[in-house]
Amino acid sequence: MNSEKEITIYDIAEKLNLSASTVSRALKGNTVIHESTRQRVCKCAGELGYRSNTFASNLRQKRTHTIGVIVPRLNSNFMSKCLAGMEEVATENGYNLIISQSHESLQKEAENAKTLFNNRVDGLIVSLTVESGKPDHFKPFSEKRVPLVFFDRIPAYNSEACFVTDNMELACDATRHLIDQGCRQLLHITQKSGINVYADRKSGFEKAVKESGISGKTVFIEKMDIDAGRQAANEIMAMKKLPDGIFVSNDAAAIGCMKTLRENGIKIPEQICIVGYNNDPVSTLVTPMLSTVTYPGKEAGARAARYLIDRIEGRKNFSGEKCFIVKSELIVRESSNRKINQ
Amino acid sequence: MNSEKEITIYDIAEKLNLSASTVSRALKGNTVIHESTRQRVCKCAGELGYRSNTFASNLRQKRTHTIGVIVPRLNSNFMSKCLAGMEEVATENGYNLIISQSHESLQKEAENAKTLFNNRVDGLIVSLTVESGKPDHFKPFSEKRVPLVFFDRIPAYNSEACFVTDNMELACDATRHLIDQGCRQLLHITQKSGINVYADRKSGFEKAVKESGISGKTVFIEKMDIDAGRQAANEIMAMKKLPDGIFVSNDAAAIGCMKTLRENGIKIPEQICIVGYNNDPVSTLVTPMLSTVTYPGKEAGARAARYLIDRIEGRKNFSGEKCFIVKSELIVRESSNRKINQ
DNA sequence: ATGAAAGCGCTAACAC
DNA sequence: GTGTTAGCGCTTTCAT
């Protein structure tokens, strides 16, 4: 346990009268090495406080055992769960995660991508910013054949594997549920964005509205957060005719909206039913509890990581654009359940 | 933009009839190199699609420009903010973050520490698990003089820099506030743990109780989450004499407790005042809005990272154990404000 | 089953 | 201002 000099395989080799190559092999558990030798090497390594030098190894092997992750923000329960899923799979397989936030900025996303590229990550997992134009900054990865997968927020015209829920389908379910509760004046609150999560949820809403032939409008907000939800509520309060059912494309905005409506004396769900999206734990804490759509983040993250590692290690060939659906479902709670009150 | 072979400084050197060292210097902006040469090199590097090989560089320089982070969990708003603060400072200074979760397990914490140590991070930022015994797993870092800082959850007898709020002081403030609201039967809900955050908040509670001479008890729960808070509420409901003021050592548990109390017909704050801790955004979403103590996570994270980088780069000498206080304050909201109702 | 030797790409000491 | 040289610690042929 020397505290200054780093121990190398040469130190071990010298001490044991072996060659560095033998030590290297022994340490990696190469079966060609005699068991007794292997044990001596490992014992000695332990005693000397040896730790393998990742850089030398990486330099030699041209691999980093590191996966880059770019997400818009860390601070949602959903995202933490995604990352926990990735981390678990990564660690199991001897990979590290370098996590970076794009803070919803396309430019920051590009910078992060560049940094990770230069750090020679073995693979990249991305959830895009809302303002995703054509994300050219991922081209270097495909050019150098560094595996890349997207999850949650995926590119419109992608040629990579993606892991998402069926946003359209579930938004459709949520909207049908509102109709089922007797709502006839529907409203969708979302962010103006081409990104799949919001675009698809909007399409789902519109599909359900169309098939039922009732009224359905959309109110756009700037960000999908609490305050924006409150603003939307103010807009709603100013309408000549109030909606009686609202589908909001995430929980934070739904809750902000619901809070403000209630502060204005609106009864939820009696006057207006509300459904959010994501099943954030906070949705069970508000009064009334918010109906929402689950999003199994941990599973999505774990599956994305597993797929990526399979690709990295050549266990899976690149088979072009592929969209994997992570199963999710509508949860009806008080905010849209009129039946239990009857 | 060759897509297969990696360009090295030798390729650039050859093309420009220079030596590798000159190219290396030029690329790093070494002022000794002639400006025109520098420009030629940079231009050529761009054209060839050169990217620096971090490993070769790290191997040579014995530095990684990577900071390890170990936190109990990512999924709190507080922690995301801490990480955002760290990330910002790290990126500004050309460092990457490797973030790992201990999931409140001492063993996982030790594993993570080992992994990061073997990855030769230049420094380490840690928030401990609740079950921190004597964290021996950080010894290798001090032995190899790898700078280490703690934030939020810090060791009892530490010899490293720490960044925390004044938990005791603020818990004391919170408790005094309850007394000020007329509460005379106080209760503290917390987790049984030696870790500073909970121990200090408990001490602060006890200090305020003692100085006022009124009754103050403590109820212990297993985890500081919503469900445990609900359980605590059930215990409270079973008491012969209900408390009239509760200080809970985090917001999640406080909210769980408050929800269940209200479901049992208890009026908040009329019958029982409640104060939480952390100022999680959810504290403004519940009814009534929760009084709490702010915790500027972003600032704490940023300061910890800045300090660490200063240490790494030798701009700051190690000056032994040092506790830096991040300023925070009590926010009184509806859940403990009886005055506005009078 | 083990060893010798070369080289991954970069940087830094030294020379000119 | 630029070049020469050596070496960071590891892995990997190829040889024995």
From the alpha-carbon coordinates, what is the Rg of chain A to the nearest angstrom?
Answer: 26 Å
CATH superfamily of the largest domain in chain A: Response regulator
Q: Could you say what the CATH topology of the largest domain in chain A is called?
A: Rossmann fold
Main sheet summary of chain A: 6 strands, parallel
The total beta strand count of chain A reads 12
Biggest interface goes to: A-B, 49 and 47 residues
CATH class of the largest domain in chain A: Alpha Beta
Mean pLDDT of chain A, as a whole number?
Answer: 90
What is the helix fraction of residues of chain A, given as a range?
40-55%
- Assigned CATH architecture of the largest domain in chain A: 3-Layer(aba) Sandwich
Instruction: Kindly estimate the percentage of residues of chain A that lie in beta strands according to DSSP.
Output: 15-25%
Order of helix and strand elements from N to C terminus of chain A: HHHHEHEHEHEEHEHEHEHEEHEE
Query: What gap, in angstroms, lies between the N and C termini of chain A?
Result: 73 Å
Summarize the structure.
With 342 residues, chain A is an alpha/beta fold. Helices cover 42% and strands 15% of the residues of chain A. In chain A, helix 8 runs parallel beside helix 9.
